[in-house]
Structures are given as structure tokens and as C-alpha cells.
Amino acid sequence: MSDAASGGSGRASLTRRSLLQGVAAGAGVAAGSGALTGFPTIWAQNIKDITLVHIGGSYAAIKEIGDQAQKDLGFKIEIQAVDPGTQLTRALTQPKSLDINNVDATQLPFLQGKGVLKAIPVKDYKLWDKTVPIFTTGKFPDGREVSNQGYSPIKSCFWEDASAKKLATKPTEFLTMIPTLFNADTLGIRPDLVGGREAVKTWGDLLDPKYKGKAALVDYAPVGVIDVVMALEARGELKYADKGNMTKAEIDKTTSILIDLKKQGHFRAFWSNFDQSVNLMASGEVVIQSMWSPAVTAVRSRGIDCYFVPLNEGYRGWSVGLCPMAHLTGLKNDCAMEYLNWFNSGWQGGFIAKQGYYSPVPETAKKFLTPEEWDYWYEGKPAAVDIMDPYGHLMEKKGAVRDGGSLWEREGRVVVWNTVMDEDRYLTKRWNEFVSA
Amino acid sequence: MKLSPALASWLQVGPLALILIVFFGLPMLVVVAASFFDFDHMAIVPAFILDNYQDIFTDEVTLSLYLSSIKFAVIVWAITLLIGFTVAYFLVFHVQSLLIKIGLFLLCSVPFWTSNIIRMISWIPFLGRNGIFNQVLVGAHIVPHPLEFLLFSDFAVVVAYVHLFTLFMVVPIFNSMARIDTRLIEAAKDAGASRYAILREIVLPLSKSGIALGSIFVVTQVMGDFFVVKVMSGGQSASVVSALSNEIQQLEYPPAAASAVILVIVVVLMVAGILRVVDVRKELAS
Lengths: 437, 286
Description:
The complex is a heterodimer.
Chain A: H1 2-8, H2 10-20, H3 23-35, E1 51-56, H4 63-73, E2 76-81, H5 84-93, E3 100-104, H6 108-111, E4 120-121, H7 133-136, H8 153-156, E5 174-175, E6 178-185, E7 187-189, H9 191-194, E8 215-218, H10 221-234, H11 248-263, E9 267-271, H12 274-282, E10 288-290, H13 293-300, E11 307-309, E12 315-324, H14 330-343, H15 347-353, H16 362-366, H17 371-377, E13 387-388, E14 394-396, H18 407-411, E15 414-417, H19 424-436
Parallel strand pairs in A: 1-2, 1-3, 8-9, 8-10, 12-15
Antiparallel strand pairs in A: 3-12, 4-5, 6-12, 7-10, 7-11, 13-14
Helix pairs in contact in A: 1-2, 2-3, 3-4, 11-19, 12-13
Chain B: H1 5-34, E1 38-40, E2 43-45, H2 51-58, H3 60-94, H4 98-108, H5 116-121, H6 123-127, H7 132-139, H8 154-178, H9 182-190, H10 195-206, H11 208-223, H12 227-232, H13 240-249, H14 253-277, H15 280-285
Helix pairs in contact in B: 1-14, 2-14, 3-8, 3-11, 8-11, 9-10, 11-14, 13-14
């Protein structure tokens, strides 16, 4: 590949060679740039001495992605997967220990005004006009408005100005983050233990007495409570003005119902990590629960039927992105911007698609998926071939159909987003009371 | 050159004192100081306020957390004491050969060759609804349906604690029992004492220091735990430290520091109580 590239246009390659010093780096860069369009774009002597530290949750901060970026861009990327608490603490108290903060949109309210993040001028991000409109205009491609309950993409994507002090909650010229993946979550069920995939149709089933002692929730208030609130609303027990931003009174009513349910033994467990959610489901301790899409996959890969069930009331959506840290300057800052532009150029989108996540720039991800994979993951069509995960393991057999259908059949039905409420502290306090009741 | 006695003593206490000051005293001072700080959304503000303590003492959750932790501590202490005492008694007084004695003693420590987490997690598939134990019970028609209370319950928490901490009871009790002069027991036998009388009048009083030390290990570990409670109760029970760790996760350091200070005081009182019943220094010196 590197020979082909250098043979193609002698002068450019020669310059690249002499600048980049070192055959290995040169070969990697050339190989990568053959596959992608126009990377790297920074030509500096000392680019290979640059290391960007990228931290995020294990579902997004994936080593393989960093390795590929390193190959394509010629500088080092160090990926560190950490839990959300550590991530927030480090970003706030040791901001210089990281360069790229791979945040869940709900972390942004805690990071604003602390001087740790840098605004990204829209004009510096090359793929903004190709990004799906839920991020750019707050609308679905069919023109409908995206639900604004919770931290919708439009609420979390923009700073008021270049100072990165305050979220604008509407489009401006300054991005808080480059959105890198998004998805729609719902409940996971064990079809074999609840009477089939069709047995669960509504969020209300999460609190249905027939699943007493066999239901579980994620022990993370901002997400767990939304799952419960969806269920309570579906059962007609409570109505909420804004599920994404509940009042103290609404939080109180919700918690007291929850505590009653807990005392009756409705919940089998509260899980706090991915692994626990997989084991609860795989062992049959639990038949219906809060779940993430890759956890459903992990249960299925053990040969146990598990289903991310599309529900009448719609989905709970979320998004994740990359924020450059405020301390970046000079060449390192250029490299960070280069990395952000690389991130959605396709390779990453193709990789995470095979975990069930969507790229905010689907057309680039498409280039890194086979037509059959694209049809399965994005179009909701039956798999024309066996579907593999990013690491090449069998995930779904030929003929399977993705739960919920195509990208917009799923994402278009998001009714509430992962959130941080104004009464966040109060919610956490009441949630802890519930868990320890 | 001959060191003066005073200098020699200072040199002897020096290293330990230094370690205690640097790694315990100073951090503890920082925690105490932080417990009086104020904080707003995600930032700590140096101040001197009592709000953090006031919140702890006015919140009813605090009492239920302490009651729950103390309940676990007492149950686990009683069970580990019974098992620990019995095992140590057997090893010291029933096993005659020194070689077998040491061999069996080492056997007690075999589970410790794997990590705490593995030992605890392995209870989950064993006790689960479709776990091995329930399969046996249902298969043998002892119960009609799998028992639900075995996992993700207080029962599961106690099982894991006992499994994890019994050795901490066995070792010190074994140690103090091994130092009992066997001639005392022979003399008691000759004087016509029953086995039970020997146990009550000789073995138990002379093992007191071991029991006290073991109790301190077990009680402080249970009071300071949050991981076992969280995992084995399926997140359904909380402990003092799990509440504290929630606060840390939300970067609420001052209230977490205040909880830590209160917990230290409570645990120190519990240890002091144990030491008041048994004067370990006197027992060890004799």
C-alpha cells in the first residue's frame, strides 16, 4: 500500500517521507491515507512526538479506534477507559491529565463554566453539514421536531460563545463536542421466560406485578429513574410535565411508589455495571430490566435469547461526543482538531455500527460497512449474511432483523433523552433512599 | 559507640511513628478539615461550616444505614467467632501431630490464594434462582420451587462476609490457644473438671486476647465494607460506606468527609468497647 501511494505521485510522497522521518510511521500514515480521504493534513517534523490522551466510558473509548487513528494520523493516541465518576473527577480536578474528553452529553452541565473544556468553532469541524439533523437543527430528517425532554442533542451540543462557559441549548457557531455516537435504549427481556417477543409491548410491563421479583433497574439515578417514569406514565399512575426535568413533587411521588414496590419485593436487583446486567439476564434471575444494547448482544452471544424490545411509548435516547480540553495549544491543539475530524470520517462509525450504535455521520460509516451490514444495522432489513461483531465473532445468523427496525424507525421514536435535572442533587438523594430502603 | 537509652527508644519508635503520621495522621487531618468545607455544584469551597454534620445527624437515612451495618457486623461477628473458635480449638487441642496441625492450618488459608472478589462472586452462580444449590434442592424434592432468598438478600451478604472473614478470627484465636500451657488442662482433668468446665474456666479466658483481636478485624472490616453488600444484595442494601461512596462519585467531598469522620469515631468506639472488655496488652504481656 505504501509503495502504491509513493508510486502514484512521487513528489508528494517524497516530501511526506522526508518530513515524517522513520519508515514505520511513514508506512502507517500512507496506508491509512490511502483508505481515508485526505488524512493526515498536518505536516510537521515533530508530529510523532505528540500524544493525545483520550478518556471515556468503555463503550466508546475503544483501543482499536485509537490504534487506527494513530495509523492514519501519525501521532499517538492513548485511549483510557474509565468509569463516569472517575472521568468527571479527572476532567474537573486534573484537567491536564487528559486531552480529549469522550463525554456522555449528560456530563456537560457539570463541566460548563469550569474552564476545563474548549469550544470547537463549527467552521473547523468539516463534517458538520453531513451530520444528522437531530444534532444540527433539532429536527428529524422528516422534519418533525426532536423531543426536548431530557438533554436532547440540541440542548447539549452548543456553547453560547467561544468562552465555553454556558450551554446555549440552541444552535450557535461553537460546538461543545463532536458527536460521535448515539442510540435509542429500551428494556431488555428474556423472550423464552416472558412468553415470547410479543409478550412485552409497553414500558408499563417493567412494573407489572407478574414480573415481581424478576425485574431489575440500573442503579444510576438519571437513567434508572427515566426507565421507571416511562413505566409509571405508561401505566397511567403518574403524569409528568417534563420527564427529563422533574419537579421535587414529581420526584417525591415517584420515589414513594418505588419504595413501596421495592418493599413488596418487585425488584430482584439493581445493577451498576455492564457485566452485572449481562449476568442477571443470562442466569434468568431477571426477565425484564434496564439494559444497554451491547449487553443484550452479550447475552445473545451466549446462545440465550434476549431481546431489546421496541415499546409502544418509544425510546430513551442518548448521545456521546468528544470535547477538546481547554489546556490544548499549538501543535497539540492542531492534532486534537485533526483527531476530531478524523473520528467521524468513517472508520469509527463502521466499527461502532457493529456494536449497535449509530454514527452521527452515517454516510461516512457506510463506506466502512459491507452493503449487507449497512442494510442490517441502519436499514433494519433482514441480514443477508451472518452478522459479525467488530472483532469478527458471530453475532446474528443470516435472516435476523434488528430490533425496532431502521435508524429512523428507532431513533425517530425517542421520546426522552438521558438527562441531568435541575433537581439533580435531590433526585440522587431520594434515589439513594430508595436503593437503601 | 553506645546510644543513650532515650535515643535508642526514639529510633525504635521512629519508623512506625513516621509511617503512621505520614500515611494515617496527615490524611486523616485533611479529611477532618474537608468535612467542615462548603461545596457548590462540583466545587469545594474552604470554609468552616457545620452543615455537613448537621445533614448527617438530621437525615433519617443515616440511622438506618448504621443500624444495617451494625446488624451485619454483629451477625457476622457471632458466626465467625463460633466457627473460628471451634476450628482453632480443634486444631490446637484435638490434632496431636504438629505436622498435621500446621498442614491443616495452612489449608485454612487456601481460599485466600484467590482474590476476595472471585471468592465472593462465585457465590452468585451457586446461590442463584437457577443456581447449583437450588437445582439440588428442587431436584431432590426438598423444596417445590427454587428459594429466592438465597441470593440478592441479607442472607447472601452474611454468607459472603463469613466466608471472607472467618480466617481473621481463626488465626488470632489459634495463636492465643496455642500458647496455653497443656499442663494446666491436664491438671484440671486430674482434678476432675469436665470438658465443658475446662473450656469455660481455662480455654475461654486464656483465648480472650485472640478473640478480641479477631473481633476487631471482623467488626472493622464489615463496618468499612461497601462492595460485598452492594454485589451480594444485588444493590438492594446499602451500608455506611456505600452511601459515602455515592457522595464521592458525585464529587460531594465535604459531606463524604464528614461521613468518614463519623464512621471512624463509631468504629473507634466499637474497638474501644472490645478492648475494654479484654485488656489485650495485659493478656499479651502475661
